[in-house]
Design a protein that fits this description.
Blueprint (H helix, E strand, L loop, with lengths): L3 H6 L13 H25 L1 H5 L5 H27 L7 H7 L12 H26 L11 H36 L7 H17 L2 H6 L6 H25 L1 H22 L3
Helix pairs in contact: 2-4, 2-7, 4-7, 6-10, 6-11, 7-8, 7-10, 7-11, 8-10, 10-11
């Protein structure tokens, strides 16, 4: 009769080669966070022009400060997420292997096309659910006016922020932290259900994290719009979290970036008259 503990281990994510030092990977994520935040600003400036008009400092100073802050956060939170997740096979195996010039283990599988397709599928599901909410509620959450090529290129630049900064915070840090905390209740041993619960909780927090931007864009603080924002983003967050646990941070980033291209580039272009 097989050992139940060994049977449970079969359902866990593969032991990705992410142990050892993490400083180079964290610094790389921090640098990427700075670039992604700078690329986000054209979208934010068009989405919330009144807020930028009331800034006490020049926009370029605010942009630089926000980018630097995001870079430091991605570095610190990325290092923490890498450190916590390494024991449980979570992290950024492809970046780790490249930056430390180590061969990738046989357990490190590449499913780049699958990640991109799952991201596109998640975005299409979000658009479908969005239409159902609009149908039942009668009104939609404020959306950028004059959807056009102008919004498309801004959305393309903003997609890097979602794929990099949001994945560092919500998958690399949150999922790793939640699995680590849950494993502490089982003497440091992670069980399959812990990964599932961590992905679900991180997805809900990911959805809630989009509320401030929605309020700043003019969304009313009513129960249905709030539920809509959380649910739609959580649906995509579950897909990204599953990819993170199974294939690593890089696949989750690609899926998130692909989803944002559909939502913020293709969808505005499709809405053009």
């Amino acid at each position: 009769m097989p050992d139940p503990a060994q049977t449970a281990e079969l359902a866990l994510p593969p032991n990705l080669p992410v142990r050892g030092p993490h400083l180079r990977v964290a610094l790389c994520l921090g640098a990427a966070g700075i670039v992604a935040t700078l690329l986000l600003f054209p979208y934010l400036m068009a989405l919330m022009p009144q807020k930028f008009a009331r800034l006490p400092l020049p926009w370029w100073a605010v942009m630089g400060a926000q980018a630097l802050q995001a870079g430091v956060l991605c570095w610190l939170l990325g290092w923490l997420g890498l450190s916590l997740g390494a024991k449980y096979g979570q992290g950024a195996p492809w970046l780790h292997a490249a930056l430390y010039r180590q061969p990738r283990a046989a357990s490190t599988r590449s499913r780049w096309w699958l990640a991109a397709l799952l991201g596109i599928g998640a975005a299409l599901l979000v658009l479908l659910l969005q239409q159902l909410f609009v149908h039942h509620a009668g009104t939609a959450t404020p959306h950028p006016h004059n959807a056009s090529i102008d919004w498309a290129w801004r959305g393309a630049l903003a997609s890097f922020y979602g794929g990099i900064v949001e994945e560092v915070k919500c998958r690399l840090l949150l999922v790793s932290l939640l699995v680590w905390l849950l494993a502490r209740t089982a003497h440091g041993r992670a069980r399959p259900w812990m990964f599932v619960l961590a992905v679900l909780l991180a997805a809900v927090l990911f959805g809630a994290g989009h509320l401030p931007a929605a309020f700043a864009a003019g969304m009313h603080a009513a129960p249905l719009p709030i539920l809509r924002i959380i649910l739609l983003n959580a649906v995509a967050g579950i897909v990204f979290g599953a990819l993170y646990c199974r294939l690593g941070l890089e696949h989750a980033m690609l899926a998130h970036f692909s989803a944002d291209l559909v939502l913020h580039v293709l969808a505005p272009l499709a809405a053009m008259p």
